[in-house]
Design a protein that fits this description.
547 residues, alpha/beta, Gyrase A, domain 2, six-stranded mixed β-sheet, five-stranded mixed β-sheet, 18 helices, 39% helix, 23% strand
């Protein structure tokens, strides 16, 4: 971690306290014949568990026969258009969003390495060569998005077990572009299987977290059995013929399956599943599970349950709790009832329950997850921008509070000469002393304030003009999320200079327009220059004293 990254990380520990009111992610799901969009919010009724949620948005759209082959460059715009219609209907334009990608697009490896600490792995794991040397058949990782996570670490036995997973960058970018073109902000891209695991784990009691869970996951051209526990994840593909793949899709549309054809189909698929389970248990040393989760991506699961009931050995199917602890408001239940398979929503609801962890620290995750792998290529940059936004809110709030408090105190005293002689610089020095005390709890806040120092503002300039105080309080709201305030100067005659950085030139233009529309300034001429991934900008204008 660089000094700047360390500074941002520590500063975010303070700033994120005022940035905690994040909205839940809008989850998008591509089904074989439809698209689902879901948004939830926490259930505040104290009679319920803290894990209870309310389904606030539930949108469904049919995708049509022409684009039922899965997401590709050819049908990207068609999918995006459908989702955008749903987003507009639900009034969710510009919201944070997430989506899961079928596991068939990933390559997953379980590595057993000599003991390696978290810090050492964090340093070495960023290098493609580190993994290419550990896995003989893995090459060209520079064109892949790769993630890893320690599953188990045992220093006494000199062993660390790591899940290493990667996916082509172009595949991930396809899903990122899908969300962007639909009018959403992509913040999490996940492996569908990992999202399912996370959802099941979130519904498992703490007493049973260490017990292995077996999943049979049936999805178009993506059929797997999965065994997971607290420190274990194993995935084995189910080998199903092309003919039976087509029959699986047809099966979900039928009302009557009482024929010899479907009996034979159930026997074949059941045998395929048992073979995959046997192969799985050859790879791991665990007792055979007595129950399993049957999760299907097809709209109707009842026919499949009937056919497999007596064809998957002695194991019993677990009761589906997909919508357990989910309150469905009036008006949403009808759309939900169109699906005769609630297991469709396992991965969807897992994504919908997440928020951006701007502190970027495992301890800040609301619920303990076995897997925490986000394949968004720009994740680190996104977290940094959110940290910048949190710092903006913190610093401007502090400045505004001090201005208001100073003005209030000064208006109640009869010391005008004293007031006129004190500058914001002296107040700032006092604040630094207070910040040093707070530093014991939150490291580097003082460094943050020093870096973003405010110069040349006289307290007296604000006492006679309420508009100045209002301007400072409004500035945080006017700044775009991807813009960062670096310097702010206001002279006694109302001359205003703003300097900062932004991710895009369009955000700078939006900020300028907001300044003008606010009435605090009549013009906001901008000078900006791109430097790497950032735009440095400056605005020189005059505050309108009438406001």
């Amino acid at each position: 971690m660089t000094r700047f990254e360390g500074f941002l990380h520590n500063a975010a520990q303070v700033a994120s306290n005022i940035y905690s009111a994040q909205k839940n992610i809008v989850a998008v799901k591509l089904h074989p014949k439809s698209i689902t969009l879901v948004k939830t919010f926490p259930q505040k009724d104290k009679t319920f568990s803290e894990n209870n949620t309310c389904l606030s948005i539930f949108e469904v759209s049919s995708i049509g026969e022409e684009i039922q082959q899965g997401l590709s460059e050819k049908n990207l715009n068609d999918y995006a258009f459908k989702i955008r219609e749903m987003v507009i209907r639900a009034k969710l334009m510009g919201h944070d969003s997430g989506i899961s990608i079928p596991n068939s697009n990933f390559e997953n490896h379980i590595l057993k390495l000599p003991f390696i600490s978290d810090d050492e792995l964090e340093e070495k794991g960023k290098l493609e060569t580190f993994w290419e040397n550990k896995i003989s058949d893995v090459k060209d990782l520079k064109n892949k998005v790769f993630k890893y996570q320690i599953l188990n670490s045992d220093i006494s036995n000199n062993e660390t077990t790591i899940l290493f997973s990667f996916i082509p960058k172009k595949t991930v970018q396809l899903y990122v572009d899908l969300l962007l073109n639909a009018g959403l902000k992509p913040v999490t891209i996940e492996n569908e299987i990992f999202s399912i695991i996370s959802r099941i784990q979130s519904q498992t009691s703490s007493d049973n977290l260490n017990e292995p869970q077996l999943i049979v996951h049936l999805s178009p051209i993506n059929n797997n059995v999965i065994l997971f526990a607290d420190n274990l994840v194993t995935i084995i593909p189910i080998l199903i013929s092309d003919l039976d793949e087509a029959l699986l899709l047809e099966l979900s549309e039928l009302n009557d399956i009482s024929t010899e054809l479907w009996d034979e189909f159930g026997i074949r698929v059941g045998e395929n599943i048992r073979q995959a389970i046997d192969l799985l248990y050859e790879k791991v040393d665990f007792p055979l599970a007595e129950t399993f989760w049957l999760i299907s991506e097809y709209n109707n699961i009842s026919n499949l349950e009937i056919l497999l009931k007596n064809n998957v050995g002695i194991m019993k199917q677990n009761d589906m709790m997909t919508l357990n602890k989910i309150e469905v408001p009036p008006g949403r239940s009808q759309a939900l009832n169109n699906f005769k398979n609630n297991t469709l929503f396992f991965s969807l609801l897992d994504i919908a329950s997440k928020k951006i962890n701007i502190r970027n620290h495992a301890k800040d995750i609301a619920r303990r997850e076995i897997l925490r792998l986000n394949y968004l290529p720009s994740l680190n940059k996104l977290i940094r921008y959110r940290q910048f936004a949190a710092l903006n809110k913190l610093l401007i709030a502090v400045i505004g509070i001090f201005i208001i408090l100073s003005g209030t105190i000064m208006s109640m005293t009869n010391l005008p000469k004293f007031v006129e002689s004190i500058s914001l610089a002296s107040t700032y020095e006092k604040f630094k002393l207070e910040a040093n005390l707070e530093k014991k709890k939150n490291k580097n806040l003082t460094n943050t304030l020093n870096q973003l120092g405010i110069n040349g503002i006289n307290i007296s300039d604000f006492t006679g003009h309420d508009g100045y105080s209002n301007f400072m309080l409004s500035l945080a709201e006017m700044l775009p999320e991807d813009a960062e305030l670096m310097e702010l100067n206001i002279t006694s005659d109302g001359a205003l200079r703003i300097e900062g950085l932004s991710l895009s030139s369009s955000s700078i233009s939006i900020f300028s327009k907001k300044l003008i529309n606010s009435g605090f300034v009549s013009t906001a001429p901008i000078n900006h220059q791109k430097n790497g991934n950032y735009y440095f900008f400056s605005i020189n204008t005059l505050l309108s004293r009438e406001n």
